[in-house]
Design a protein that fits this description.
There is one protein chain. The protein is mainly alpha-helical. It has a domain of 27 residues. Helix content is 61%, strand content 0%. The protein has two helices and no strands. It is flat. The termini are far apart.
Length: 51
Amino acid sequence: MLRTHKIALNPTDHQRQWFAQQCGYADVAYDFALSAWNAGVPKSELRKFIR
């Protein structure tokens, strides 16, 4: 049996800006990884970009 919980977020304006900024960073990282994957870059080369 799976149970779920819905939690409403009521962020302040400052928090909304921060959330949007973090989503932007994640989008850029995803796009970079996807383009590298499609270009055939080996995983060992991709690890150089991870800190």
